[in-house]
Amino acid sequence: MRDIRTFFSFSWAVLRGKYPFPWKTFFLALLCVVYMISPVDFLPDVMPLLGITDDATFMLLVLAMLRQDLRKYRDFLNTPPDQVIDAGDFKQRKK
What we know:
The chain is mainly α. The chain has a domain at 20-70. The protein is 67% helix and 0% strand. Helix 1 packs across helix 3 and helix 2 (23-37) runs antiparallel to helix 3. The protein is elongated, with a radius of gyration of 22 Å.
């Protein structure tokens, strides 16, 4: 349930440009959808159980990558912003 809430927050942050877009995960998710729809499979779907395992394996890989991206996003949210105040270079001001 926590991942679902984080996913919507993550998606909104990506759309607003507040968080970098995960291109690798997006590309593999798109490839996974195309592979599942495609009639050409590594293992044909007509084979009982074996035909579905390659699709399921690919889907689990993409979900694991998405979960890793969500963890990185949570870390990003929990990281406090830098509180650096630039006072300038004092040596140049003394002159």
